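Cross-posting from the chemistry board since nobody answered there.

I work mostly on the small-molecule side, so proteins are not my area. We synthesized zinc ion and want a rough idea of how it might sit in this target. Sequence and SMILES are below. Is it possible to get a predicted 3D structure of the two together?
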Amino acid sequence: MPSSAASTQPTTWRSDELVTAENPVGLQTYECWFCPLKCLGFSALLYHLEQGFCVKRYRIRTLAFEGPQRGLYGTKPRHTNAFFCFNCGNHFPEVSWLFQHAEKVPACSHLLNADECLGRLRAFYINYYDCPGMDFTQS
Ligand SMILES: [Zn+2]
Ligand SMILES: [Zn+2]
């Protein structure tokens, strides 16, 4: 049962207006900053960017270690499973996996709220790519 406390929380990562059969947890749609692709959920956008089509390969990964709360979700860039869930401790090889974990596992989803580590990392990426600079691979 949804608790009534939800209405008192600050900006949350998901929108209840978007809940449908195809989108059961109300993920936001994100448009790639560099191509017309629309992604359901921030993890899908990160996954797309990690493939190296629109930004330099590994840039999403290295940027994560420049984020404001990197100690709360990352170990060392060189590690194979360099990203972890602050809530449950599971480790993941790429940032997109960690975001997808938080989008899929209700117990860990609060980390996506604006004032939590993954919410802040999401804001960091969005601010960063407002000005793509050297990462833009198209010539
Ligand atoms: Zn793209
Ligand atoms: Zn977790």
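Reply from a structural biologist on the board:
Welcome over. Reading the output above for you: The helical segments are 42-50, 59-64, 95-104, 117-129. Residues 117-129 form the longest helix (13 residues). Happy to explain the token format if needed.
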